[in-house]
Amino acid sequence: MADQNPLPSSASLIRHEPGVPVIRNVNWAGMNALYMKEVRRFMKVQLQTVWAPALTTLLFLVIFTVALGRGGLQVMGVPFADFVAPGLIIMGMVQNSFQNSTTALLSAKVQGTIVDYLMPPISSGELLFALVASSVTRSLFVGFTIWVAMMFWPGVNVMPHHLWAVLFFGIAGSAMLALLGILTAIWAEKFDHAAAVGNFVVAPLSLLSGTFYSMDHVAPVFRAISHVNPFFYAISGFRYGFLAAADSPLAVGVAVMLGLNLALALICYRGLRQGWKIKA
């Protein structure tokens, strides 16, 4: 009869063997779901994750411009306020990128919900990409908020000269810290371990990377030490986007950012794939 349901086709009766992947290419839907989940997580507490870091960074600008910017001090041929503003923006971006990726994975480990990351049908690479992308998104929100606020601060010029440098070094620096945060969360067993990395590694490296000073004004020994600090290249390149001047060659900064991000991504991928301190 015409109104009867047709018999199911042979394709609908196919049963996949256990362990055989059904999604053989990139699981865009799953990766996007995890990305949106992480973005919604930090946006639900945006007063703490976006607005508070932006306010803290603006307080740095207020303090330094009031203390040093009123006397006509110039660095790299521009007023001190214009020099320090880009460094403050990217410093806030990278620190929040580290906090976001660390909190996401470590909270799941501590609370026993790490299975929510391991059971869905997404690969280790897709999991890593979604976590890094969400952390970079938070850093961009923070950086944009700081930049808009600085636009209205008197005596500060933060109009970009080279937008490509602002975007590249901002995203590459944020991705570097997001990967470092994921690696920290994989290694850490409690929040004290992650806090130790943030306080004794991330904070000193970001503060002692040329954020508040030019390499022309420091001793040669300290300048040499700063050149092995990867934060220095991120801040120098990001500042170039605003001032068209940098403390290091742009080609070196691009190579360092790409190489370090690739190395950190491979280490994190291997840790997630093997389940080191995650699946045990």
TrEMBL record:
The keyword NAD does not apply. It holds the Pfam family ABC2_membrane. InterPro entries: ABC-2_transport_permease (IPR052522), ABC2_TM (IPR013525), ABC2_TM_bact-type (IPR047817), ABC_2_transport (IPR000412). It is found in: Cell inner membrane; Membrane. The chain crosses the membrane at residues 50-69, 75-94, 127-150, 162-187, 194-213, 250-269. Keywords: Cell membrane, Membrane, Transmembrane, Transmembrane helix, Transport. It is a multi-pass membrane protein. PANTHER family: INNER MEMBRANE TRANSPORT PERMEASE YADH, INNER MEMBRANE TRANSPORT PERMEASE YADH-RELATED. Belongs to the ABC-2 integral membrane protein family. This is Transport permease protein. It comes from Sphingobium lignivorans.
